[in-house]
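Researcher: First entry.
Model:
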Amino acid sequence: MLIEEIAKFLQTNGIGALGNDIFIGFQPAEPDDCITILETGGYRPDYIEAIRYPTFQFIVRNIDYAQANSKAEEIFALFHSKENYSLGDFYIYYSEFAQEPTYIGQDTNGRYEISLNLEITRRY
C-alpha cells in the first residue's frame, strides 16, 4: 500500500519510527509526540493515461508547538514539489502539498496539532 511506503520513507529519512511515533490510519492516545498518516481519497483516476491522484493527510502532534511545527516542515520538505521518484513499487510522477503546514489546534490533552495535505500523481 502506498500509505505504508510513505511511512517507511519518513522513517528512512529520520523523521520517526513506524509503530513508535509514526502511525498509519489512526491516531493513538500515546505517545504525546507522533505523526499520523491518513488516506483522504484523492481525485478521479485518469484511465486513459493510467495515472492516479491519491491524497494523504499528515497530523503532527507534539506537546511543544515549535517542535510540532519543525517536524511538519521536515515532512513538507521531503515531499513538496518532488518529481519522478519511487516509493517502494510505486512510481511517483509528482508530489506537492495543498497548503503550508497548518495549525489545527490542541487536542483534549493540550497537545499541539499541525496538518499537512499531500497530493500525489502516480502511475496506475
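Researcher: Second entry.
Model:
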Amino acid sequence: MLPMITGFMNYGQQTLPAARYIGQGFMITLSHTNRLPVTIQYPYEKLITSERFMVESILI
C-alpha cells in the first residue's frame, strides 16, 4: 500500500510543474498571435532589394 501512495504523491508532484510549463508555453503562443507577419508571401509579393545587392550562389 505504501508504494502505491508514494507513487500517487510523486505523480502529483510532477503534474503541477508540467501544467505550469504547458501554461507558460500557451501564454507565449497567445502573445505572438497579435503580431504582424514577418514573412513575405513569395509568389505574390517580391522582396525589394537595392541595386547594389548582387549575390552569386556558389555550391561548394
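Model: Note on the second entry: The chain is about 50% helix and 0% strand.
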